[in-house]
Design a protein that fits this description.
five-stranded antiparallel β-sheet; three-stranded antiparallel β-sheet; elongated
């Protein structure tokens, strides 16, 4: 394959994949507890360029240096930095300040989320907007009886000043311990990192954590990716024209 076409095509593909990531981030700018994805470019393995211009059998190839073939978009990394906390007037809205996650029960097993926009179902249980049950430290759904509910910073849930449960807020050790599984929830990456109680996370009632998306940065990145895609597209057109001219010159009759 012609190296210039390969390099330009890989640039277009990388820009397209990163554009999809930025577009998804922008689409979730108003999603409660959303954590943006970040991605960067890396090069394929470099190859050694050798000079082989002598017919002498005793002369070895001479190393000229390394050549990078193309770039590729790396696997997205989740940005778990804290989002701003916004006060609301709803008692069931909860926000986390710190590295912790709420623990919820889903049909696919236990999942983790920063989305504290909870509600109460017909049985009085606290649920996410998807209907997934919020769990306490014993692994049971939290049922709220009639009365005024209060939530302390340590996650203790009180109704009419009587404690009824403690929200299971956990954290992880690794830098990228979780993967996104939809519904604004996370699942472990199966690398052995186990959740533990998060003593350094405070729960704030009648508040939500808004998305940690850097809106200005995302829009700037989108413009940069559009220009990079268009530049790679023009390079492919130039390469195609050059190949066409070369083929015509070779095919032209001599004399």
């Amino acid at each position: 394959m012609i190296r210039g076409l390969y390099t330009a095509a890989s640039g277009m593909l990388s820009a397209m994949r990163r554009m999809e990531l930025v577009t998804n981030n922008l689409a979730n700018a108003q999603t409660v507890g959303f954590k943006q994805d970040r991605s960067a470019l890396s090069t394929f393995d470099e190859v050694m360029i050798l000079q082989d211009g002598t017919p002498a059998a005793t002369t070895r190839n001479q190393e000229l240096g390394q050549l990078g073939m193309a770039a590729v978009a790396e696997e997205p990394m989740i940005d778990f930095t804290q989002g701003a906390i916004q006060e609301t007037s709803r008692d069931f809205d909860l926000a986390l300040e710190g590295p912790g996650f709420f623990t919820v029960q889903t049909p696919d097993g236990v999942r983790y989320t920063r989305d504290g926009g909870f509600t109460r179902d017909a049985l009085g249980r606290m649920t996410t907007t998807e209907g997934h049950l919020l769990l306490d430290t014993a692994g049971n759904p939290i049922t709220i009886p009639a009365g005024k509910m209060q939530v302390n910073e340590d996650g203790t849930v009180r109704v009419e000043d009587q404690p009824i449960a403690q929200i299971n807020v956990v954290e992880f050790t690794l830098d990228q311990p979780l993967r996104k599984v939809g519904a604004n929830e996370f699942a472990p990456r199966n690398d052995g990192d186990q959740p533990r109680a998060s003593a350094g996370t405070a729960v704030h009632q009648s508040s939500i954590e808004i998305s940690n998306l850097d809106m200005a940065g995302a829009q700037t990145t989108m413009l940069e990716l559009q220009r990079a895609y268009q530049a790679s597209q023009r390079l492919i057109q130039y390469q195609d024209e050059m190949v066409g001219r070369a083929v015509n010159e070779i095919a032209r009759p001599i004399g």
